[in-house]
Amino acid sequence: MSLSYFSPAAAAFILVWFFAVGACVGSFVYCALERSSEGRGFIGGRSECRSCGRKLSPRDLVPVLSYIFLRGKCRYCGEKIGAGSFAAEAVFGAAYLIIAAACGLSLAALENIVLFTLLLSASVSDLRTLTVPDILLTSPFAAVMTFWAIAPPNDIAGRLAFSLIFGAAIYLCALLTGKVLGQPALGEADIACFVLGGMMLGAKKSLLMLFLCSVFGLAEAAVLRIGRRKPFAFVPAITAAALIAALFGDAITDRVFIIYQNFGGW
Ligand SMILES: [Zn+2]
């Protein structure tokens, strides 16, 4: 059901609610990945300031808002708090809000929220440690299959065939580029994301995703590496590209096609 069926106030409430839920999920995901990468369990245990060790109270742990009101500093010792958790909360919240705005209250919204929660979690992990846990690479495939079982798209065979060819083509390109550069161009996680994108999006929107993630990847490399030859996280670029392609791919590719026609097919 599109949000245009609701009064403006109700639609605004729904969007704020989606942002809040996304921010809470982002907070949990960041905390879970941070603690598990340090070998700590993430169920139970109170959060504490990394500088002074004081246990944090609930008012210090409100996603997004606490960081803004505390201006990124610990309430007790004034030491700066890392912005990673805040960034994860804001990005997850924004993603949930955009999905709700584009898909309304629908099965498509649920599907996108599940898939992009997993892909954004993989992105956070890739940014933090340049690795993605296996569970975050396998579970999105299980999620796609589950949604296909609930509401099968009419081009399942085409999507499966395309995703395999798409993944294989990108793998070969990465292999060749890697040989030329003398270092791996893409990791396993990146290839898995492309195959997943092919299944989720189909051929037309996957090619849009490939174009967008190349642009995002180059921008990210320019910002993060500044000329240094060092591996960088590519999963966030793929995830951002897949989100745009999933939500706005039809509108964008239709417009490109109209421009193409107006130029007499070049
Ligand atoms: Zn402190």
Describe this structure in words.
The protein is mainly alpha-helical and 266 residues long. It has two domains: 1-105, no CATH class; 106-266, no CATH class. Helix content is 70%, strand content 0%. The radius of gyration is 20 Å and the shape is globular. The two termini are 39 Å apart. The mean pLDDT is 90. The structure holds zinc ion. Residues 49, 51-52, 54, 74, 76-77, 79 line the site of zinc ion (ZN).
Helices and strands in order:
Blueprint: H1 8-37, H2 65-69, H3 84-103, H4 107-129, H5 134-150, H6 156-181, H7 188-224, H8 235-262
The structure holds zinc ion (ZN).
Question: What is the gist of this entry?
Answer:
The protein is mainly α and 266 residues long.
> Quick one: biggest sheet?
none
Radius of gyration: 20 Å
Structural class: mainly alpha
SS element count, helices? 8
| Mean model confidence by pLDDT | 90
Low-confidence stretches: none
The helicity comes to: 55-70%
Number of strands: 0
Topology as a string of helices (H) and strands (E): HHHHHHHH
Number of domains: 2
Give the DSSP E fraction (strand runs of 2 or more residues). under 5%
